[in-house]
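User: Predict the structure for this protein chain, please.
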Amino acid sequence: MRDLCLHQLFEAAADRSPETVALIDGTQEITYAGLERRANQLARHLLRLGAGPETLVGICTARTAGMVVAMLGTLKAGAAYLSLDPAYPRERLAFMLDDAASPVVLTQESLLDRIGESGAPALVCLDRDAAALASESPQRPSPVTGPGSLAYAIYTSGSTGRPKGVAIEHRSAVVLCRWARETFPAEDLAAMLASTSINFDLSVFEI
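Assistant: Here is the predicted structure, written as structure tokens:
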């Protein structure tokens, strides 16, 4: 486990139990196989848009199944994700995108006004562009990252000045997941409520 990337932990689970429900979003249930397919398709789309190792892909979405697809698809493309809370002021979002030099932003059509002037080279709306994403190959992309590769970045609140980005490697996130497996009984981990914003590390444990 310690030599795997964060998304490879999910891939291992998808290989073991493809028809098991992986995610519940309201009345929508998505199996591991379904989530794997959608994440692979998004990853291939991101690769063609220039995402890859050591690049940060912005994620500005509501808390939906699409948010989890965006996270996994970004990691599968070899990139790291940057959480862009839709509730943040436009100026803060624009600063984070500029500072992180994000080549792509994943969002929803209803949130385009939050980042429409961010200057990001590519905007992908998970809902509006669903047909284009579904036309991509569902095959898992070849691995291009390792434990020392970036997984995600979190920006500080900026309460003492300009927000500063903190980059987290896969190995650190995997340590958190390994700790959870060793600390909690399997029955406690059989289902988890994802209640923490992906602006915080605890979300990695929950998701």
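Helices lie at 6-16, 32-48, 65-76, 90-100, 112-115, 130-134, 170-183, 202-206.
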